[in-house]
Write a structure and sequence with these properties.
By secondary structure, this protein is an alpha/beta fold. It is built from 11 helices and 8 strands. It is globular.
Amino acid sequence: MAWLKSLPRDDPSPSSTSQLEGWLDDYFYRGLEWVTKASDYVVDTTMVGVAMNGLSHLVGVSYKAEFVCALSRGLGANLNREMRERFAKELFQWAQEVHPDPRRPLNTCYDPKTGRLFSYQLQVCIFCLLFVVYVFVCLFVCLFVCLCLRFVCLCVSFVYVFICFHSQVPDHLTVSDLAVAHGGNPLPLVLTQDVQRGLNMFRPWLSGSNKQPFLIVGPEGCGKELLLRYSFEQLRSVQVAVIYCSAQTNAMHVIQKLTQVCMVISTNTGRVYRPRDSERLIIYMKDLNLPKPDKWGTSQLIAFLQQVRTTCVSSLNVHVTIRTCNTVW
């Protein structure tokens, strides 16, 4: 198939290509048929859209378990939760792969280091966990010692916290700096099973070799922007340009934003846009459902984005990420 021939692979050997082609014949077309028959979509789409969504998650897979897990996320990304769980169970049954946790099939992920499937686990900072244990031990000891000894223990605890905090936080800390913790990870985000599953749903589309525009759909306050901001913090040499959509937003606003953050370079193929301060640019459009369509039911902004995607994507080093709030995610 044409997609397989154009796929950038680390291992271009004929054996790996034929292996992937065999998995596509065995599971992809069968899964695509299952999803299109179910048609329990969160956002209305076409069969081509479902197929491309599934293929986008298969870039770089090398093992059968990894393929099945990625295909489950790709083809089932636009299904409602109950239907996604049914599809994941069916797909793993076809491939004769075993879920680590059959009660939560959507929490299955592939670990390339061990070559096995595993279930997402709550990731807690070891330092925080040890400190909590330390505090509980101190409180337990204080119940059986005199008031003076308890006071000393509490003073030691406060001094310990002060020293650790003072050693990690610079004197010039501002409110904006609190958005990023040690290691570049946003402070408010706790990596629960649901959060890890949501991140892995769109992380492949942010990678340098598999850049894809995508929609994140959900009600207000469900955590869409938090997941996106966390993923953006993990990227290197990437600039994020935010466009806040309203009822009057049109294609000209997108062009103005591109003019602000990009520079025009003349090449042998014509004039192209390149980011000014980074290697890649992500256009993050919030509330894309707000722009009003015209009297024919067409949105100029949507038509412009589709045109950029289909005709100008080769001359733009720009990534379009869109967040909407009108449908359940």
